[in-house]
Amino acid sequence: MGTAIVLLVLTGIVGLAIRSMVKDKKAGKSLQCGQDCSHCGGCCHKQ
Questions:
Q1: Is the pTM of this model over 0.70?
Q2: 42: Cβ–Cβ under 8 A, 6 or more apart, which residues?
Q3: Greatest CA separation for the chain
Q4: Which residues of 3-20 are buried (b: 16+ CB within 10 A; e: fewer)?
Q5: Which of 34, 36, 32 is nearest to 44 (CA)?
Q6: What is the pLDDT of residue 34?
């Protein structure tokens, strides 16, 4: 039972992290260019 609870918690955390990354990407932010695409011209989105 403990294993199932830990698995659910970890799945939730990973899901939230992925959701945050997708949301940031749609908002024009990216980890590759320091969370601010204004200085790189959005080149990381053209990949």
A1: no
A2: 28
A3: 50
A4: eeeeeeeeeeeeeeeeee
A5: 32
A6: 57
